[in-house]
Amino acid sequence: MSVRIVVADDQELVRGGFAMILDAQPDIDVVAEADDGVAAVAAVREHEPDVLLLDIRMPRMDGIEAARIVCAETGCRVLMLTTFDHDDYVYDALRAGASGFLLKDVRRDDLVNAVRVVAAGEALLAPTVTRRLISQFAAGPAARPRQTRAEALEVLTARERETLQLIARGLSNAEIAEAMVVSEHTVKTHVSNLLAKLGLRDRVQAVIAAYEAGLAVPGA
């Protein structure tokens, strides 16, 4: 089954270029394009895509607000695109519920892979979005006291905690399986269970939770 995607960018050439690259893939179907945030939200509501490829800076409604609405109202996953590599945009995108964050100078193959990764339920951040940014986000003024956050992890089994810690280190399911000496299917089960128990949307939120609880430490 093809991944259904809406491409939203206010620059026609950029939007058309991304749409052409993605629509050329045998497993990706671009079902609509949008030139601003309002149109992007409307397109998602109408076409019910799997992924919304969404620029951050757009007229009428910016990408952050559009992502917030889409993530709150639908099951569509949001992959953010921007020409800027500023911490604030990363934070806002994560707060809005985005599952991926890429810069617009992303290579063709990396763009296609990002869409597939996000559609499969994984989370993806650009290489420039480091653990330092995630840890700073987690330590922001809106963060809860660390003791409270750590207590929230008590619902997890030892294996689920270990899985969460490895997710926070940036490991894929295959790499986690190798590290824990279990099957990849078992890892997927652990990931699904810990997300459900902690009420998290995806791996991005899981990474934030791990840092908030002190389970992961920058540079460790």
Automatic annotation (TrEMBL):
Residues 4-119 form the Response regulatory domain. One of its GO terms (molecular function) is DNA binding. Residues 149-214 form the HTH luxR-type domain. GO terms for biological process: phosphorelay signal transduction system; regulation of DNA-templated transcription. PROSITE patterns: HTH_LUXR_1, HTH_LUXR_2, RESPONSE_REGULATORY. Keywords: DNA-binding, Phosphoprotein, Transcription, Transcription regulation. It comes from the Bacteria. The modification 4-aspartylphosphate is found at D55. The keyword Transcription applies. CDD domains: LuxR_C_like (cd06170), REC_NarL-like (cd17535). This is DNA-binding NarL/FixJ family response regulator. It comes from Nonomuraea muscovyensis.
